[in-house]
Amino acid sequence: TVYYSIAFYKNHELLATLVTFFYRTKNCRVELFLTAIKIFNYSKTTYFRLFIAEMFPEIDKAIYIDSDTVVLGDIAQLYAYDLGDAYVGACKEQVMIQEDVYGTYVEKVLGVERDNYFNAGMLVINCEQFRKNHVLEQFMELLPMYNFVVTQDEDYLNLICHNKVCWLPQKWNV
Fold it and tell me: Which of 22, 64, 113, 166 has the fewest Cβ atoms nearer than 10 Å?
């Protein structure tokens, strides 16, 4: 599935031409899902991953990968991970571990240990658990309460999914 907003429609047409040449896709405009979000520093498109479970109630699991990511291995192996009751399968965010200023930020602002903060650019999403535990609703409730300044989308996901992460081998995010 290719997610896009009307603002990116011309680029979407080019992308769709390239993608459909190689793969079968489903196109999905997401403006209606994003109308309630009021964000000042980030594009609303960064939050697409939070809507996947609700937009596609027929799927139990999905892979989300940022558009600037290259997958060098067999993506089916990534999809095959058993997430159990975890909300997401993810890799540790190395900058939070390696850079003290960022590690301190996530520990003090989010209450998440720097070693337990994940990178949201590559996720295996347990859609069943997202729906069962109302992850989208939690996000919408947190949105007016916090104005994260470092990595807004990752911060919200790490706050909501704290201790509900299936840690994946770091090879999936290098």
Answer: 22
Calpha distance 91→85 (Å, rounded): 17
Report the percentage of the chain scoring pLDDT > 70.
74
d(CA 104, CA 24): 44
| Residue 70: predicted pLDDT | 86
User: d(Cα 113, Cα 121) in Å, to the nearest integer?
Assistant: 19
Q: Interior CA angle at 153 toward 150 and 156, to 5°? A: 95
Give the residue carrying structure tokens 């990752």: 154
User: Which of 24-28, 40-44, 69-73, 154-158 shows the lowest mean pLDDT across its residues?
Assistant: 24-28
The three-class DSSP label of residue 10 is helix
d(CA 158, CA 102): 14
Residue that has been written with the tokens 């540790």 in this structure: 92
Q: Give the tokens for residue 56.
A: 């596609």
